[in-house]
Every structure is written in C-alpha cells, then in structure tokens.
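Practice problem: predict the structure.
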Amino acid sequence: MRASASIALAATLAPGLLQSPYNQHPSMRPHRHLRRRRQRRRLLSKRLAQTGYRGHRCARPHEPVVELDCTRAPPDARAFFDAFVRRRRPCVLRGYARTAALGAVSDACGAADPARAWCAALDRAAGPKVVRAEVRERGRFGRGNECQLRVRGFVAEALHRHATGGACRYYLTTQPLAEDAEGRPELCGEPVRSLVRENLFPPTCPLLPSLILANANVWMGCAPAGRSTSSGLHHDFHDNVLVQVCGAKRVRMWDPSATNVLRPAGGRARVHANGRVVYGNERVEADGRDAAAATSLDLHRALDDASDSDDCDALLDAALALEANHEKEPATPLAPGPPNFATRKAPRGLPSYAACYIGPGDALYIPCGVWHEVSSGGGLHAAANYWCHPPDGASFARPYTSSFWADDWARRRRDDPLLKT
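Answer:
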C-alpha cells in the first residue's frame, strides 16, 4: 500500500514523470549507443565513398568470396579476366595447381606428401644458393631481424621442425633484386631464379597471360601444431596470384575503398580506379608506371636507334639531366615501416570479404589495393606467387591503356637471359 501511495503522489505532482522513457522498463528505453552506431556507419560510408576506386566493392561484412572448381581443368584466361580481373574481384581457385602447368608446384601438389616433394625440388634446383630469411624474434617475425643462409640449410631446418611439430626459426620471403643498366629490377631472386632455369617454374603467370609480370616469389616457413603466423594487414601494389603448395592459409580481405579508413603507415593515400594506391606526391599512374620512368625508357629506346654521335651525346645529356632532376618529394609517413601496412584494426561494420581458406593446390587471386591479412599454418607451409602490373584497360587483348609495359617487356625479353632460356 505504501508503494502504491508513492506512485499516486508522484503522478499527481508530476504527471509527465512516469511517461518519461527513461523511467520505463530497460528493454523499452531508446539506446543512445544505437544512435552513435548509426552515426559511425554514416561517417564510415562517407569515408568509403571518398576514394577513386571503381572496382567491385563489398556490399556488407563477410561477403562470400567467389570460388571456381579447377580440379578438372584450369579456367579460360580470357573468361577469368572478364569475370574477375576487369571487375577487380578476388577469387579462390580450388585445385588450380594440379591442372595448371606450374612445374615443380604442380608436381609437389600432386604428390602424397607435398611438403617433402616441394623441399626436394628446392634442394635439387637451388640447394647451394644463398637466400635472405627473416629470423623469429620473441616469437614473431617482421621485426627486421634477417640473416643469410643456403637454401639447403633452410630446407633441412624446415623439414626437421615439420617432423617434430616445432616452429621454424626462419621464414623465406621476398628477396633483394639486382637492377640492370636501365634501373629495371630483376623479375625474381633465388630460389625462383634457379627453378626457372631448371624449367621447374614458368617465368610468367599462366592465369594472367596478358598482364606483364613484375615479380615472382616463394614464401615458406613452419608453424607449430595448432598455431599460425600472420602477415599483418596490408595491401599489394600489384595484382597477386598466390598458389599454395603445402600447408594452409586463412585470408581476410577488404576492398581498396577502405584504404584511408585503415590508416596506412604511408599516410594519406590516393586510390586509382583499379585499386592502385599511391602515397605522398608520387606521380604513379593506375598501371604502376612512373612518368619519369616512361620518359627514361623513351630516351634509352632513342639511344638504341640513334646512329649519329651528336644525337647520342644529346640523348645522354637528356637522360642524365632527367635522373638528376627526378627527386620525388618524400611522403609524410604515419608510422615507421612499409607504407602499405595498416596502423589500425578494421572497425566493426566495415564491409569485408568472408575469410577464405586455401590448401595444397589451391590458388587465390587478389587484385592490387585489396587489403588482406594472411595466416599460415598446418606445419610446413609454402606458397609461390606472381605479382603482375595492374591493368587500367577493359579488354583482355589490351589490358593497359599505355604501351609502356609492353615495350618494357619486349626489351626485357631481349636482354634478360632468364627469359631467353
């Protein structure tokens, strides 16, 4: 009775008090955090729309990644270009390595024990060669601690850890590349170079025959049982075809419109329509060519065609002046380290692709600018990848609007002994 009298008195003194939403049952109260969440989503959508990216965008969180069954035959290159490369859409190719002509990669994926078959091929082709490897420090890679060792020693260490269920101290990653007289970097370092010489690895990507190759690599390590190693959240500057040889990978991806939301270490970025990311004041086109590099290539081509000594001297002076004046204004990095790594985690509600898994023989196509984090596990894990210059055209026959990369590739085929073999 006393409680009823209190309620009646309160209703008499302040009739609107009991009707206030903050005095109702908690389940009926308007949640302020819901309004804040809507505001964050609107702000996030506005930031995503600010980039110049015009390829495929994730419509919602955990959008499924398209998968192709390649266990019987690899996909037609032209059809794959129209469906995925032109639209800038990632794709998982199940069993691709078993049907594609990838030399030692296909042989290892078809063996009973892919890890041992792959290690045997590496040892046979590049055993005495010296490579650079990251060294595990405090249980992690990527801290800048590196060493040099022979491929044979690395393979023996990886196989030993694989057999005992331990973690390998080393991780094989990208290698330093030498440059030719024109400043053009090599297509690949060891052990890929030796695999190509022994006809155990094709020097161009069979899945993307119309794109110009930028670089080819081998990635290899060994994770302890039940654990994995992470690459960190980053994006590539080239279109990537990643072929898993042994072990397994889990890949999470976000489309290039999320670039500035993820705050890359290189600072504020500009995103081309095809997803190519440019930092600072670099004059880089959508296909990755640099304006000064294109002019330098034209000068070298003119030098080859010049017959008069006066013309040669004038062209040489122009080339030297171009190199002296070609000093890019440095970007203002947000954090130390590679510019293409994120400095923040992906916020909740950010549209993304669903995590995909690739095992021995599977391949994953990742367009340039797509943010991804790769976790490798399954004991000894190895993969090979091709990086190709991103296309800015719309047709398979002419993927680039400029003839720069086609001319550059013609000169490389003429000068590079690796392509001649």
